[in-house]
Amino acid sequence: MGGKAVITVFLLWAFAGPPALAHHSRANFDETREIELSGTVKEFSWRNPHVYLEIDVPGETGDAGTWLIETHSVTSMMRFGWSRDSLQPGDPITITVQPDRDSSKRFALLQYMLTPGGNRVYAFRDNRSGEAPEVQPSTDFSGTWYAVRSALDIRLAGGGPPEGWPYTDQGRRNVSNYNEHESPQYECLPVGVPKMTFYSYAINLQRDGDGIQITKEHLNEHRTIYFNKDRSELKKTPPSYVGTSVGNLESDRHLIIETDNFLPTKWGLANGIDSSDQKIMTEDYRLSEDGMFIDISYTLTDPVYLTEPVTVTGRYRKAESREFTPVPCDPDTAKRHIISD
User: 280-287 and 254-260: which strand pairing?
Assistant: First the structure.
């Protein structure tokens, strides 16, 4: 890669469906402990980016009181068989959770709910029975894809600024001032490019005569890759979080994308690292011969925050093709996990 700094992104999907990754870290939950809570549903908040429920646990034990329970996103809960009608206020409930490491907080991550018949209904695992849908290979990059994560614990998905990047003084100030609670996603702001490339949840690529349409599940974000667009016309396009992208097919299975015309974006390069209107991104997509994987790398240039380009690599795995259900992000829900002491 010449003199470029290179960072590799490992993307873990341990399950058949979407993984249990989120836009914030879940390291506050004690994964070595599971406790059972029985009580009454006080609230079932069916909103993105995460579904929450509150339950009142009766009694005089240390677990008694009102608990806030974090679950998965609406998108994934639907994929795992849940619906907004799965629970109602007043319903009796028994759940197994991983509690917050701070025992003074009645805050926990849902593992599963126990039905009256004794069955477990999981929040981070597919509850549906039957054969998995057949996955058809792609011949032109089109289809639904998941990133392939193999070395990232789901509770560390939030992460901080990348280590080892060649930061400018401004970039180093970003690193020094990093605060996970200041994530723009807690205000439901767009993550833009490149973050939507390897962000959790599925991504749809649809090839047409004029280029490729890319839609990100859960984020409801969209970008267009132009193949045959007049460059002078593209220069009139207003700057945006996703920029203006021009694609070139080196072959039927090799695509190069050049993107510029970005808005300055908070955390627009990576978690904690902003980007300027000078950001440029070059992507390299290579479709495997069997049509079941896409190897991806992108190189970022931004002289305001980086002294030299950096390259990030990863991989997509083909999934069953499906339409995404758009669910808007709710700012209050996005910040609900931030509990004051």
Answer: antiparallel
